[in-house]
Structures are given as C-alpha cells and as structure tokens.
Specification:
The chain is of the alpha/beta class and 294 residues long. The protein folds into two domains: 5-142, 3-Layer(aba) Sandwich (Rossmann fold); 149-293, Rossmann fold, CATH 3.40.50. Helix content is 35%, strand content 21%. The chain contains ten helices and 13 strands. The strands form three sheets. Strands 8, 9, 10, 11, 12 and 13 form a six-stranded mixed β-sheet that branches. Helix 9 (253-260) links the parallel strand 12 (234-238) and strand 13. Helix 8 (224-230) packs parallel to helix 9. This is ABC transporter substrate-binding protein.
C-alpha cells in the first residue's frame, strides 16, 4: 500500500491525531486490537484494563492471533514506559464516556500523547452499536484497510433473522438475561440500556430482563437463587477471564436450576466492534432464541 503523508484522524474526544505518514506500528487496547484485526490491521502490541491480568484475555482478543504480539501489561503494571516500549507510531484506546482513557492512568495517557499520536474511541452507553462500528471502520480505513463488504452482508442477514424471530413469536418471545458470574454466591445482572449490544437486541424486538435499582448504572447484583427464579429462556453469560468460571458452578444447585431450562450464549461485553463480530454474536443469539421458542 502506498504511504500517505500528513496522516490525521479526529478521535471521539475531539483530539486530532496527526503524523507525517500513515502509522504502521500500532499499540492498542485489546478490544481495539481485536476490532482492527477484523479489518485486517494487526497490532504490534496490546494492553489490558484493570480487570485483566499478566497476559491477554483470549476472549477479548476475539480472532486476533496472539502469537508474536507483545503484551504490554494492565492495571498498575501498565505505565507510559510500557506503552512506548518498541517505539509505536500510534496508540489506540477506548473510553466509556467523558473522554477518560480506559485502562491507562490519566498521567500516563498524557505522557504517551506527548510522544505519539493517541486515538481514543467511545464504546460507552452513549453510543449506538452502529456508531461504534462505524468509528472503528473509519479508523481501519485510515490505517489502510479495505471496506468490509462480507461483514456488512453477514450483519444484515443476522439482524434480519433476529427481527423475524421477534416478530414471529407465536405466543410469547423468549426472555433473555445477560449476566456476569461474580462468585459461587452471586452474579452481576446487566442493565440492557447501559450496553450498546444489549440495547440493539432490545431494538430488534427481543425481550431482555432489565433489572432496576442498585448503585450501579451497568449492573445489578443478585444471588443465584434469585436468578433461578427469573426463569430466563436464554442466558447471555459473560465469558471474559475476569468473570467467575462456569465450571466452578457445577455443584451450585441454584446455578443448575437457572441453567437447566435455558439456552446459554457466551457473551463478551468487550467484543470486537465490527460487522463480522457482531453478526456472529447475533447469529448465536438467534440460534438460542429459535431453540427456546421451538
């Protein structure tokens, strides 16, 4: 590909990232790296969030091949020196609103931005799923990627399928519940309005359980017995590394009661923000809804 001069990209904070040529050595937050990989852009380095450990979360990485990609750390171990290791010519991060860079200490982010261009894209509750996809697609194209025609076709088919299932429910639509296992005793129930992908499912006409109350805008904490009483037909279960593993709940009678009559779909709240990745998730949901409704 022919190199550009005077490369620039306006991020979701309103900051203009500029370079004398198109960046090629890109360091990314793992979700951003997984998204760019969907467009054919391979990161040179990855970093995690305060929820991550010493290595990259393979769930967050999506289809991104991790071999040969430098993992720079997460949480307290992630500082400006780590981010600048290897001399990247662009750093890509995300924000959940307010312009605060997710996973990077504000002072470290400031120091990084003084040295290399920093692009921050908003994946928070104020954004629609389509807007988030469009912004990542725009960045990918600015980095030399072609338009993802196949992904767009797959997404349109998956969306049409979910809408048809929602419209075609004979008696009632199956109830969906999104949750993140917290421990052997409890889980965090997702509040759909706070999650762009869950809001999208609701907009298609699906029925998602929407917990009310509690101090968090994103989650409602409940014990497993209470979750079993909800009798959800489809469970969207957080499978990131920081979630309590389902294998550890095999002896939990309340979890078994909740899961026994439900269809379980792996849910990644930090999934890659691309047409193809969202199409795959929507198809998994459609399979579960179809099975639950049959």
């Amino acid at each position: 590909m022919e190199r550009q001069t005077n490369w620039q990209f306006l991020d979701d904070r309103g900051h203009l990232a500029t370079s004398d040529r198109r960046p090629e050595k890109v360091v990314t937050y793992i979700q951003a790296g997984a998204t760019l990989w969907e467009h054919g852009i391979r990161s040179a380095g990855l970093f995690g969030s305060n929820h991550d450990g010493d290595g990259p979360d393979p769930v967050k990485a999506g289809s991104l091949p991790l071999d040969g990609i430098d993992y720079l750390g997460s949480g307290a171990a992630l500082d400006a020196e780590a981010l600048l290791r290897g001399a990247p010519d662009l750093v890509v991060a995300v924000t959940y609103g307010g312009g605060q860079v997710y996973g990077i200490d504000p002072e470290a982010a400031k120091h990084v931005e003084e040295r290399v261009p920093l692009v921050v894209l908003d994946v928070g509750q104020g954004q629609s799923l389509a807007d988030v996809r469009a912004r990542f697609a725009a960045l990918a194209r600015a980095l030399g990627a072609a338009q993802d025609t196949a992904g767009a076709i797959a997404l349109a088919r998956a969306v049409n399928r979910l809408r048809a299932l929602a419209r075609g429910a004979a008696v009632r639509r199956p109830a969906l519940l999104a949750l993140s296992p917290a421990s052997a005793d409890s889980a965090y129930l997702a509040k759909p309005p706070s999650w762009p992908d869950l809001r999208e499912l609701t907009a298609f006409g699906l029925d998602l359980v929407s917990p009310q109350g509690g101090p968090s805008a994103n989650w409602f904490t409940a014990d497993w017995s209470g979750i079993a009483e909800l009798s959800a037909d489809v469970l969207l279960v957080d499978v990131r590394a920081n979630a309590h593993p389902l294998d550890a709940l095999r002896a939990n009678a309340s979890w078994q009661a909740a899961a026994s009559g439900a269809h379980i779909v792996p849910w990644n709240p930090e999934a890659p923000c691309s047409d193809g990745a969202h199409a795959r998730f929507f198809d998994q949901v459609a399979d579960a809804v179809e099975a639950a409704g049959g």
